[in-house]
Amino acid sequence: MTRVVFLLVPGLHLLDLAGPAQVFGMAADAGLPYRLAYVADHPAPVDPRETAPPCPGAPATVPTAQGVPLQASTDWPDLAPGDIAVVPGWRWGDARPHAAPVSARAARRLAAHHAAGGTVASVCAGAFALAHAGLLDGRRCTTHHELQDALARRHPRATVVRDVLYVTDGRVITSAGIASGIDLALHLVASRHGAGAAARTARAMVVYARRNGDEPQASALLRHRAHVSDAVHRAQDLIDARFARPLPLHALAAEAGVSERTLTRRFTAATGLTPLRYQQELRLERAEHLIGQGATTDAAARAVGFTDARMLRRLRASP
């Protein structure tokens, strides 16, 4: 079971939290091993007239940028190396330049989790919390486009990658503003459970199954999912699961609930490919991976369902 713990900082944006929480929650509903947890943070006040932070373990109310208060324990759960800590962003206009973005206690917990082999992630201004914990020193990262200059200026040891959805540097993953937290979470699901699982989760959320982070993503499983045709998605689900086997058009059409002619027309309109060509792209992609791991062309061709390695060689040679 993978625990995903969200650090709730005062003034956080609801979508920064709800987007990735929805991804992991729906992945769990689909049978993937995720369990969500929430920890309230309370940075130490800089003004003695402000409310002192609660004692560790006590419940705390966290105000949000949208006015809906959230309540969570201030106790951190025990985290294993396979777990994920996520810091959603907050309304930057409310932050004072001289105030730490998270408490020293939270910064230590984030740093300790990463040092123990865990994954840490941020959405939007949450990158400043990771930087405060020392986790962005010498690393590539990103944040909301309006905050990129401030992050680069305040944390010169970090390499800020501009105008991308997310950046992965080892076990530190940072994303841009607001809705990009969904892309970050889908990327984590894909990297741990395969692109098909991420595509199914994205489809359930009615969002594009994107993984275009800091560089072009090669996965055909996601590259051709940016449409809303339910019949085509059903056919793709079957091809994704069985691309190494023969898949006659009538079987795909039956799965999609439409005629063969209708499926071909809708599939091509939605993806730019025929069902056969889509299956060939999946086979080619998998074969390239196997060859990169040391397999011969003949062995890779057999593993992905080609009866003749000449077809694989032809596909590899085509532009």
Automatic annotation (TrEMBL):
GO molecular function ontology, one term from the record: DNA-binding transcription factor activity
Keywords for the protein's UniProt record, in alphabetical order: Transcription, Transcription regulation
InterPro entries xrefs: Class_I_gatase-like, DJ-1/PfpI, Homeodomain-like_sf, HTH_AraC, INH-QAR
Residue ranges of every copy of the HTH araC/xylS-type domain listed in the record: 233-319
PROSITE patterns: HTH_ARAC_FAMILY_2
Signal peptide interval: none
Alphabetized Pfam families for the sequence: DJ-1_PfpI, HTH_18
PANTHER family assigned: ARAC-FAMILY TRANSCRIPTIONAL REGULATOR, HTH-TYPE TRANSCRIPTIONAL REGULATOR RV1931C
Protein name: Transcriptional regulator GlxA family with amidase domain
